[in-house]
Amino acid sequence: MSIFLALVHFPCLNRRGEVVATALTNVDIHDLARSGRTFGTAGVYIVTPIDLQLRMIEEVLGHWTQGQGSKHERRAEAMRRVRGVPSLQDAADDIEKRTGSRPRLVVTGAQMQGQLVSFANLRKQLREDDTPVLLVFGTGWGLAPEIIERADLRLPPIARDPALADPSGPYNHLSVRAAVAIALDRLLGDR
Amino acid sequence: MSIFLALVHFPCLNRRGEVVATALTNVDIHDLARSGRTFGTAGVYIVTPIDLQLRMIEEVLGHWTQGQGSKHERRAEAMRRVRGVPSLQDAADDIEKRTGSRPRLVVTGAQMQGQLVSFANLRKQLREDDTPVLLVFGTGWGLAPEIIERADLRLPPIARDPALADPSGPYNHLSVRAAVAIALDRLLGDR
């Protein structure tokens, strides 16, 4: 079983539902690296087609893996698994080069609809099937439809147990850092 | 069932194991507010004894609940449940005032040892017992021993499923944002 993460900055939606490239967020890189390493994922791809942002990723990774920051061994160990790539296609190509197999694309989202695979079912599949999996998270207002349509599997939105009464009504607005952590725990955690 | 979160900045440990007050991190306030609201917690306490930091919390909350930021309704709704308090004692007093009962103190930590309650067991207890619970998270290198010793219950460190082989060996260095998200999902999520 090898699982990779992708954090996609393009193509994503903005609040008006337009397809845009979102800005890089430094703390996302750190949190995905640390959550990825804790749950034993094989790598983390930060996806952005914008040259300047790819250079920023290289600078951040350089600082933590070779520069001053590399004295912090635990952080360096997590950051060494991160790569910046211009597209999701490049991430999939890189995984094929590293593992010999094309990864299955699994997308996530707070608004995901249609035919979904449950976390429990995917957790089971991961233990029985050796095909690598690329777990894809959007930024901004979520992944653009073209990514969701291309996916092999779609995971349901993360929510509170519906058996619990909640007088305030439903709400689903996790940060991507929180969504990644929960998804990894549901698939790979010691629960 | 009413669950509250506390993010403690003092007393915490630094990397040398000394008891210190850690600095406020803006993104922690946002992520805890959003995760807390998604899973239906009753409130989030940001604990710091430092006056300047308490004023910073007030400013951030003011911006998002009354100022410019309040136009973002989802964010405002999450931020309205956050309060800055000088100590964990103040958080517990506030909960007693709001609910009529003294909360049970439940602590978390990446190094937690001794007698632990499993997430599954606490999840069950929360559904059977009306006593409010204050779920406590540390910053820096974790909660100081004096907080852990005072707690009613201790949750185990979050980790990868031990049944999965991991050639890289164990690693447990989640951000507090990730740890809070996972803990809430394990206790209150639709898993």
What secondary-structure arrangement, pairings included, does this model have?
The structure is a homodimer of 191-residue chains.
Chain A: E1 3-8, E2 12-13, E3 19-20, H1 26-38, E4 43-47, H2 51-65, H3 73-79, E5 82-85, H4 88-99, E6 104-107, H5 119-128, E7 133-138, H6 145-150, E8 153-154, H7 176-188
Parallel strand pairs in A: 1-4, 1-7, 4-5, 6-7, 6-8
Antiparallel strand pairs in A: 2-3
Give a brief outline of the structure.
Two copies of one chain form a homodimer. With 191 residues, chain A is an alpha/beta fold. Chain A has helices at 26-38, 51-65, 73-79, 88-99, 119-128, 145-150, 176-188; strands spanning 3-8, 12-13, 19-20, 43-47, 82-85, 104-107, 133-138, 153-154.
How would you describe this structure to a colleague?
- 2 copies of one chain form a homodimer.
- The first copy, chain A, is of the alpha/beta class.
- The first copy, chain A, has 7 helices and 8 strands.
- Chain A has helices at 26-38, 51-65, 73-79, 88-99, 119-128, 145-150, 176-188; strands at 3-8, 12-13, 19-20, 43-47, 82-85, 104-107, 133-138, 153-154.
- In chain A, strand 2 (12-13) and strand 3 form a beta hairpin.
- The mean pLDDT of chain A is 95.
- Chains A and B meet through helix 1, helix 3, helix 5 and helix 7 of A and helix 1, helix 3, helix 5 and helix 7 of B.
